[in-house]
UniProtKB/TrEMBL annotation:
CDD domains: MoaE, Ubl_MoaD. The keyword Iron does not apply. Heterotetramer of 2 MoaD subunits and 2 MoaE subunits. Also stable as homodimer. The enzyme changes between these two forms during catalysis. GO terms for biological process: Mo-molybdopterin cofactor biosynthetic process. Its EC number is 2.8.1.12. Pfam families: MoaE, ThiS. Pathway: Cofactor biosynthesis; molybdopterin biosynthesis. PANTHER family: MOLYBDOPTERIN SYNTHASE RELATED. GO terms for molecular function: molybdopterin synthase activity. It catalyses: 2 [molybdopterin-synthase sulfur-carrier protein]-C-terminal-Gly-aminoethanethioate + cyclic pyranopterin phosphate + H2O = molybdopterin + 2 [molybdopterin-synthase sulfur-carrier protein]-C-terminal Gly-Gly + 2 H(+). Belongs to the MoaE family. This is Molybdopterin synthase catalytic subunit. It comes from Alloacidobacterium dinghuense. Keywords: Molybdenum cofactor biosynthesis.
Amino acid sequence: MHVRVLFFGVLKDIFSEAVDSIQMPTDATVATLLDHFRARAPQLDQLWTSLAVAVNQEYALPTQPLADGDEVALLPPVSGGNHTPYIALVREPIQAEALVAQLKQGEDGAVVVFDGIVRNNSRGRRTLYLVYESYEEMALKQMRELAAEASQGFAIRDVLLVHRLGKLEVGETSVLLAVASAHRAAAFDACRWLIDTLKKTVPIWKKEHFEDGAVWADGEPFPAEVKGAPAS
């Protein structure tokens, strides 16, 4: 089978091209492809251990099988290095396992994960699906500020924070939060603080759809310091 491979950043310089098309065995996985290119640049072992991989624009684990015609992107660490938290609002399903795997580093003693999922009931009624909407520019800004504040206030190495928008089915991840640290206590504390504060301050709203109608979920009160002045 043939696979289209995209190179970004320093990898374009290493392989002197941005795109390659290679033939792989029919049972090839992401790991097989990585081994192929690692053999071409074995002197860059540290870089290979820090790469992320996307298959057809979705993050992928090394064990993921490849298929004929797949597009595989090899992604070196983004500008700013490993200490730039991964913050995103997305409309496609969140690939929790792959994202958390990319967060882990050798110096971490713990990664604490909050994986918020859509449950099948609310308010004593059966939930059909949820719809999330957001003031996106402000939400991303607030999420980045929360990650920065957590990094300064807790003994942690890195933060990952992804929130889904649009229509979500029961069982899908709505928000993924992961905190990496040398010690579990700091990771637990930071993770709890981040999700609690996000729920109170980041402008994201949820509409719950039931068999007999739909309602906007009651939000948590804004902290006093972010409220507007009370009406006179």
